[in-house]
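S.,

Sequence below, as promised.
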Amino acid sequence: MNVLVFCEHNPSMDSPEGKAAYPEGLGECLAQLLRGAGHTATLLPMDEQGVHGFTDELLNSADVAFWWAHCYHDAVQSEIIDKVVDRVHRGMGMVFLHSSHLARPFLRLIGTTGFLTWREAGERERLWCVDPTHPIAAGLGDFIDIPQEEMYGEPFGIPAPDELVYIGWFEGGEVLRGGCVFKRGRGKLFYFNPGHETYPTYKLPAVRKLLVQACEYVAPKQPVSGPLGCSHRDDFCIDRSVKK
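The prediction came back faster than expected:
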């Protein structure tokens, strides 16, 4: 399948900790992970100037998009957000990672604030699987341990997930609905909380397996419908004019 990886580059990624965690770059780490699973992955960098390399042709051929962002949510071009949201409604899958709980496409799709509590202290997170039959969790056991992660905790300003797969627990006792599926129009999206840019979370084998399975789960089971920008469903695109 064709996958777009929207990934921000911010100053923390250039710190000694950020470079140690992802010497190749966090976005390239995600793209390589997906390529290793046999998919075509195109990296679209994001910074304070917005998204670079985006074209309608790329989006119109995408089956799934990953989105990782932290500092530059407001820099993303509104036109791109509109087109991504429209594409999800038409069937494209999306995986939103870590600080993308405040990304504008995510907020548009879920319709709430996305606010949560947080603390950056490099604590252990244990992701408890609450739906062991779910395809995203296949073969991953009862829990996934992440040695160091940024704490994200409840209350979390999201609607009730259509499918709750994981709840994260942190050393301070906080919990978070950290692996959630939402269905919007013909598309599915998955939010996954781990992935701070200075911790090598996306190098952990269990997390890598989960992300590949999430990509395959949210992928459309039939071609994404219609051209970009059409404001109504294809099966309703009929001539309703009155002929005299």
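The longest strand covers residues 117-129.

Coffee later?
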